[in-house]
Amino acid sequence: MPLTIEELSTFCKRKGFVYPSGEIYGGLAGFFDFGHAGVELKNNIKKEWWKSFVQQRDDVVGIDGSIITNPAVWKASGHVDGFTDALIDCKKCGNRIRADLLIEDALKVSTAGMQLQEISSIIKKNAIKCPKCKSSLEEPKRFNLMFTTNVGPIQQDSATAYLRPETAQLIFTNFKLVQDNARLKLPFGIAQIGKAYRNEISPRDFLFRMREFEQMEIEYFIHPEKSNECPHLHEVSNFELNVYTEEMQKSKKDSKRMKVKDILSKKIIKTEWHAYWLAMMSKWFIELGANPEKFRIRQHVKTELSHYAADTWDIEYNFPFGWKELQGIANRSDYDLKQHSQHSKNDLSVFDEESKKKVIPHVICEPSQGVERAFLVFMFDAYTYDKERENVVLKLHPKIAPIKAAVFPLVNKEEIAKIAKSITAELKKEFNSFYDQSGSVGRRYSRQDEIGTPYCITVDFESLNDKKVTIRNRDDTKQARIEISKIKETVRKLIDGEIKFSEL
Ligand code: GAP
């Protein structure tokens, strides 16, 4: 039986990954806190993403924008007028429900891109009632998802500001400064990881739909006429994506696995850059241990496209509650830079050396990933119940595992404990490591298996003579004997995939 989202949430609480926020006061829907194991996993996900897409590339730099900024930003971006979901109230009990989710739950159909009128007529036609009290519902209306706050001590309209609903806009407003100061030439990307806030009507499915979450986003800028000149395409041209086009959705066909080069030659994805980033982002998940069978890329149908998007593909993941958006990758064209140029009266164009003309760059795609949705994917794909061990083994990729190595003295003898403690101290200089002397070694192994620690190191009586320890591999429980002086180097090579455990 596959793990449900409720079971995962219970597991996450029990093992110190995630807690309902302010639980001693009953919690608050859509808000979660990360515990001692969860914060490590979340930080590792962000670290790996930043390393792959910023530090290891020559064409992407990062920023860290503020959560509250000039409210004019959100007017220009279109969020003040258009960042809404359809809301519906129950006539009797006042229950407020997100209208599209209500229909999806009641009729098991997709509501992608449905307009208010269509939502209203479907609800009437199918006599959909309040899921709580079964009474009739009001007409659906638009609800803006931005949280407001007041800046300064006086609560008046002029001081109203917003908590950012996406990190992207801070990239656009800083575009010129970053481009000038980092001396960037097209094509280039600007990346950011940070909190975003949305007053979701129906937060649900644990970390899937939250009101406070984190995003990892890149705005990738190109010359408007060079959307098919991606110099890195060869890196992914044979990579396979499971493609679900607008046409397949309309004609109720199944998605199809295709190589990037074939997707492009058949013009399924219109630009090289868009295909490249879809592949790079999918590859990142797979290389960190996610199950490729649970991934697909789905094209937004016309009516579903956001106000800024020329074409959007989502990377979707097959969650226990269905195929859902994991990451959105939209082609935002020049929408944002143009909007901010007009509203701020600042010239946000760049000088193109080749044509000797000024151009407004196009965001050929914007890979936008929620950190917590990535967290869910890695947890779902790592969670394994091991019948022989009679416990959960969390097979997280060593790079993102909260603890990389746990060190145990076999027995509580001073000279053995002393060696184990000094090994832990040495490992801690480089990796998050853990010393544990309580309970049987079997119990200590299972505690580490459950939080995904890839390597356990045991110091025994023999270690006093041969200066070696036993290292145990989480996934198959195989063991090897290695020299104490080589532990740190060995663990580092195992984590980085430079050696396999079987080679020890
Ligand atoms: N800048 C574009 C943008 O924000 P989006 O599709 O609204 O696009 C991007 O959001 C990603 O952020 C989603 O694919 C998802 O991973 C994450 N996300 C969005 N809303 C979320 C929520 N309420 N809770 C958790 N993650 C969310």
Write the layout of secondary structure elements.
Elements: H1 5-14, E1 18-20, E2 32-34, H2 36-55, E3 60-63, H3 72-76, H4 79-82, E4 84-89, E5 96-98, H5 99-107, H6 116-125, E6 141-144, E7 148-150, E8 160-162, H7 168-173, H8 175-181, E9 188-197, E10 212-222, E11 240-244, H9 246-250, E12 256-259, H10 260-265, H11 272-287, E13 295-299, E14 311-319, E15 322-331, H12 335-344, E16 350-352, E17 357-359, E18 362-370, H13 371-382, E19 383-386, E20 391-394, E21 405-409, H14 414-428, E22 433-435, H15 441-451, E23 455-459, H16 461-466, E24 468-473, E25 479-483, H17 487-496
Parallel strand pairs: 3-9, 11-13, 21-22, 21-23
Antiparallel strand pairs: 1-2, 4-5, 4-6, 7-8, 9-10, 10-18, 11-12, 13-14, 14-15, 15-18, 16-17, 19-20, 23-24, 24-25
The structure holds glycyl-adenosine-5'-phosphate (GAP).
Glycyl-adenosine-5'-phosphate binds at residues 166, 168, 198, 200, 209-210, 213, 215, 217, 325-328, 366, 368-370, 372-373.
Could you walk me through the main structural features you see in this protein, from its secondary elements to its overall organization?
The chain has 17 helices and 25 strands. Helices cover 32% and strands 26% of the residues. The strands form seven sheets. Strands 3-9-10-18-15-14-13-11-12 form a nine-stranded mixed sheet. It has 504 residues and is an alpha+beta fold. 38% of the residues are buried. Glycyl-adenosine-5'-phosphate binds at residues 166, 168, 198, 200, 209-210, 213, 215, 217, 325-328, 366, 368-370, 372-373.
